[in-house]
């Protein structure tokens, strides 16, 4: 008999960890599932020395995967299974196909574990840096229900949509970031290179210089002489900010305040509700019951106020309540989410309704972000352009009045 260490979602929705003895991994997984648990990780238990544990943390802690890698691999695997290719040949094709080296490496590793007797979910659980618990739980549910291909298809759709949202936001922020960097570089060039060369010309003018010109020369001199003060202040601010953001109480207050802003708060609520609904709908459609699905979906939330509300919802569901009532009492998600959950529970199609809700909320969030970025770019252009123009105008005023200043 071998010993295995596990982490599971218990029938009441809580996360449980422990060790058990079984003949092999399959027997251990079957034993956990027979108790109503949803296994997340299941690995052979090996006592580790202190030095080995330290080395494993230092060397093995780097993340080689990421959301995009998981989305790519699951999407390609789902496509092959849907085309009628068996699991092992599908992984073999992915390991030998052209494309991202990371996808091929992970596929080869999954294939090696599969041939050694592990299931696909167990093989993915061993690569926790690439496949999060949500993916492992969904694949395990698909294996248990015999609908692995369909489950992988739904999972691939969720991962692809989530990655598309991340990439669209990242791409939309490129132009404002480039614009801001260019403007800052232009200001520094004028203050550190142009103005110092003009100082000797206006040195004798003194207080007769226009106020704007004196302010520009003072800023240039201050930046050249006390640049280290600015760096020290920036570093100190960074350290203090990082310390404050590590405090859960500060983060909770910040998240609560953000939800009170009229436009920003509604956008955060919609974005959080969209992610939560998509993950929850995907889990429910994969055959996982409501309480464990809520536990698995909770980590996708980022706002602590909403997380605390969802924890109270999970508690109510464990006690036998439906989802719509506690969701309405929490009052953290948009009214549209509450109404559609009520419809889903009444019609018995909660999983599909949640996925539809996620699409609607994602569309609203995307429209809000597009409008905000459409306003941000001209505001940045006008504001930064006006700042640079002000510095140049301060110098031009002195140049145009140079005769009066010299006489």
CATH superfamily of the largest domain: Type II secretion system (T2SS), domain F
Which strand-content bin applies to the residues? 5-15%
Order of helices and strands: EEHEHHHHHHHHHHHHHHHHHH
Largest sheet: 3 strands, antiparallel
In the CATH scheme, the class of the largest domain would be Mainly Alpha
Structural class: mainly alpha
What is the total domain count?
3
Q: Count the helices. How many? A: 19
Describe the overall structure:
With 407 residues, the chain is mainly α. It folds into three domains: 2-45; 67-171, Type II secretion system (T2SS), domain F (Receptor-associated Protein), CATH 1.20.81.30; 173-407, Up-down Bundle (Receptor-associated Protein), CATH 1.20.81. Helix content is 75%, strand content 6%. The chain is built from 19 helices and three strands. It has helices spanning 25-34, 50-60, 67-82, 87-96, 101-115, 120-125, 133-145, 148-172, 174-202, 211-225, 227-245, 248-260, 262-285, 290-297, 304-318, 324-330, 335-347, 350-400, 402-406; strands at residues 2-9, 15-22, 38-44. Strands 2-1-3 form a three-stranded antiparallel beta sheet. β1 (2-9) and β2 (15-22) form a beta hairpin.
Task: Name the features.
Receptor-associated Protein, 407 residues, single chain, elongated, three-stranded antiparallel β-sheet, 19 helices
What is the fold's blueprint, element by element?
Layout: E1 2-9, E2 15-22, H1 25-34, E3 38-44, H2 50-60, H3 67-82, H4 87-96, H5 101-115, H6 120-125, H7 133-145, H8 148-172, H9 174-202, H10 211-225, H11 227-245, H12 248-260, H13 262-285, H14 290-297, H15 304-318, H16 324-330, H17 335-347, H18 350-400, H19 402-406
């Amino acid at each position: 008999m071998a010993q295995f260490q596990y982490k599971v979602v218990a029938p009441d929705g809580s996360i449980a960890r422990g060790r058990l003895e079984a003949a092999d991994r399959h027997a251990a997984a079957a034993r956990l599932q027979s108790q109503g648990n949803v296994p997340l990780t299941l690995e052979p238990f090996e006592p580790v020395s202190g030095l080995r544990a330290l080395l494993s943390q230092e060397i093995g802690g780097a993340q080689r995967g990421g959301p995009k890698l998981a989305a790519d691999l699951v999407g390609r695997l789902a496509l092959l299974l849907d085309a009628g290719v068996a699991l092992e040949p599908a992984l073999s094709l992915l390991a030998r196909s052209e494309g991202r080296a990371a996808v091929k490496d992970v596929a080869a590793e999954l294939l090696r574990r599969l041939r050694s007797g592990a299931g696909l979910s167990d093989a993915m659980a061993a690569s926790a840096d690439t496949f999060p618990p949500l993916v492992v739980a969904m694949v395990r549910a698909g294996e248990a229900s015999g609908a692995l291909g369909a489950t992988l298809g739904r999972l691939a759709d969720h991962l692809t949509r989530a990655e598309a949202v991340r990439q669209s936001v990242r791409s939309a922020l490129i132009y404002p970031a480039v614009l801001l960097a260019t403007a800052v570089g232009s200001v520094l060039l004028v203050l550190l290179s142009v103005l110092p060369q003009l100082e000797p010309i206006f040195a004798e003018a003194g207080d007769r210089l226009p106020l704007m010109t004196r302010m520009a020369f003072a800023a240039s001199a201050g930046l050249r002489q006390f640049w280290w003060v600015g760096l020290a202040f920036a570093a100190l601010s960074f350290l203090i900010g990082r310390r404050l953001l590590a405090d859960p109480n500060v983060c909770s207050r910040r998240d609560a305040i953000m939800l009170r802003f009229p436009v920003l708060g509604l956008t955060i609520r919609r974005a959080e509700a969209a992610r939560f609904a998509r993950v929850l709908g995907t889990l429910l459609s994969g055959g996982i019951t409501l309480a464990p699905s809520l536990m698995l979906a909770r980590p996708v939330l980022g706002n602590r106020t909403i997380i605390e509300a969802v924890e109270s919802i999970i508690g109510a569901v464990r006690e036998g309540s439906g989802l719509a009532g506690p969701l309405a009492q929490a009052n953290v998600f948009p009214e549209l989410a509450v109404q559609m959950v009520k419809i889903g529970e009444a019609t018995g199609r909660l999983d599909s309704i949640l996925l539809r809700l996620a699409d609607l909320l994602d569309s609203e969030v995307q429209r809000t972000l597009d409008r905000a970025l459409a306003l941000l770019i001209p505001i940045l252009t006008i504001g930064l352009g006006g700042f640079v123009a002000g510095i140049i105008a301060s110098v031009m005023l002195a140049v145009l009045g140079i005769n009066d200043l010299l006489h």
